[in-house]
Specification:
Elements: H1 3-9, H2 15-21, H3 26-35, H4 41-58, E1 62-65, E2 81-86, E3 99-105, E4 114-126, E5 131-142, E6 149-152, E7 155-156, H5 161-166
Parallel strand pairs: 1-2, 2-3, 3-4, 4-5, 5-6
Antiparallel strand pairs: 6-7
Length: 168
């Protein structure tokens, strides 16, 4: 099975639809993730869902993703652990549970996350979050709407009253 085969069979990008069509065997999903060359945002989202499906399938074992720079890793992750060295943008988008361990993550990390935990050495930017936890040594930028607990270099992130008033 190839990424194109999955895309041909789904009406829209959703975890439920992809789960119905994706291979049942975790090793096949891993191979699909490693061999695919996503170009469009649509393809990137499908691969992101596949990383979550694989981690959930492997639970309680950890999913070591041996591919760097993929966008949407851990898309809607509910349980399990994904370990990756370098993630692209949108890491942990809409996460509901589980854990993602990463050395370096791109823009909009944790966007709309509603649970789970992201542990990183470096994050380019944290998107608007609902709940969950993000622990990082270094963060470039933090979006203004944060519901998650965020710890940067061991210190809990809090916006100052003045920043909140000014919409920063």
């Amino acid at each position: 099975m190839k990424l194109e085969d999955i895309i041909k069979q789904i009406a829209n990008v959703s975890k439920a639809e992809i789960k119905k069509i994706a291979p049942i065997d975790c090793d096949e999903i891993k191979y699909l993730i490693l061999e695919s060359k996503p170009g469009s945002i649509y393809e990137k989202m499908v691969l992101g869902y596949l990383t979550s499906i694989c981690a959930e399938c492997m639970y309680p074992e950890k999913f070591h993703l041996f591919r760097n720079d993929l966008d949407y890793i851990g898309f809607e992750l509910e349980k399990g652990t994904i370990i990756v060295e370098i993630a692209g943008n949108m890491l942990g988008t809409c996460m509901k549970g589980g854990e993602i361990e990463v050395k370096k993550a791109g823009d909009e990390t944790g966007s709309s996350m509603n649970g789970g935990e992201i542990i990183a050495d470096e994050i380019k930017s944290i998107g608007n979050t609902i709940q969950g936890k993000i622990v990082a040594r270094q963060v470039g930028k933090v979006s203004k709407n944060q519901g998650a607990q965020i710890f940067i270099n061991g210190i809990k992130f809090k916006r100052s009253f003045l920043d909140r008033l000014l919409g920063k």
